[in-house]
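Example 463.
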Amino acid sequence: MKEIVCKLLVIGAGPGGYICAIRAGQLGVDTVIVEAVKAGGTCLNIGCIPSKALIHAAEEFEKLNHMAGAKSPLGISVEAPKLDLAKTIAWKDGIVGRLNSGVLGLLRKARVKIVHGRAKFRDGKTVEVETETGMQVIRAETIVIATGSEPVELPFLPFGGPVISSTEALSLKTVPQKLVVVGGGYIGLELGTAFAKLGSKVTVVEATSQILPQYDAELVKPVAKRLTDLGIRVLTGAKAKGLSGNTLLIETAEGAEEQLAADKILVTVGRKPRTEGWGLDELDLDRAGKFLRIDDRCRTSMRGIHAIGDITGEPMLAHRAMAQGEMVAEIVAGKKRSWDKRCIPAVCFTDPEIVTAGLSPDEARAQGYEVRVGLFPFNANGRAMTMLSEEGFVRIVARADSNLVLGIQAVGSGVSELSSAFALAIEMGARLQDIAATIHAHPTRSEGFQEAALKALGHALHI
Ligand SMILES: Cc1cc2nc3c(=O)[nH]c(=O)nc-3n(C[C@H](O)[C@H](O)[C@H](O)COP(=O)(O)OP(=O)(O)OC[C@H]3O[C@@H](n4cnc5c(N)ncnc54)[C@H](O)[C@@H]3O)c2cc1C
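Predicted structure in complex with flavin-adenine dinucleotide:
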């Protein structure tokens, strides 16, 4: 049995864990990282990156199909395009492979020791890892738990056969003719939309009264319209009940039973923290619901053990995990840091995309603020017109008394790239006047951001 003693041990090399290890290494902290599967975690291997690759391929295919149907006002026509999904998936795997080696390279460059295998706690300072070359014991002064999350399985729809999770959906070699998506959250809709564009007949079954239930109705409306235009059947208020062969049984909003035949049933009803099967129960760390409870320095209830990323709760997003990882590395290196972020932007890569940062109008009012709201529609934006995508808007929420910006949201084609401007404005404590007085390049969609601020101030120029 081999033994390593180190200052910092990071368990899990997803975006939280690998960033934490790299930053700690850069700061000269003697660091070890253990990864059970592949560096990059969910995000890089089976989440953010592969899903965005598939979404991009689907968008390109749909554009060509649109032009082949002689529907394009651009004057372009093409022959009907063909798709080889196996090649698309191989291209996606190539990107994942490149990023995967990149992460390993960065860890090595920061002089982090990488151990491959599943870590199991012996006690609060020691883990054991079953590696290919035998048992490895690692003792560390500080341990960071970054083991992430996994898809929730419905007991009456266990994964296997036609029932798949997002992981399998991202590696299909042929396009399912009929795809039923159970769960209309962002993962289900991103993948459902992509498969509809690739040629599947898609039905979405969502238990609540609205798809994307975490977003307000105004933001969701353009997405719902596009789903309909793509021929996707959306059943809200409908519950999956069970499976009979390849047929999903559901109860509709009206209480009727319906059978949905499907080649694949994609279950995307949420993700749960990966807390089981590796000795975590022995430590009896405090929980916040299913998640590990942490404080503003990502400390758990046990001294010397931090937790970051999806295992610590919502929002389960890669950039939150990374920001926590960077902060914890600096704390371990002796710097004074605590979680003081004003917002965590979130993007939904649906068609059109949704981006949110800070508070929505309703959330701001619920927190007791009197607000000013400015909304600028993309159908009054020149760039949006030239790109044939005028759906959507930018919306800004500010305190009525001081004009301090509390939240910014947008829905529209390509608005994910506005997320950094939105987050920066909130992080720096911008007021409406700051955004209105900033020159925004013309013609860009970002002008909608400036115009929304002007609208909230009562003197929009282009509407
Ligand atoms: C389809 C899909 C699309 C997504 N799209 C986005 C997006 O566009 N933007 C976004 O911000 N987020 C997205 N997410 C969410 C994002 O992937 C997660 O928030 C992020 O990966 C969380 O990072 P993490 O470091 O906490 O955990 P993970 O990425 O889950 O990494 C945890 C790692 O720990 C390893 N591990 C677990 N247990 C052990 C153990 N005992 N020993 C050793 N290693 C262990 C795992 O193998 C894994 O590699 C998406 C997720 C999915 C599923």
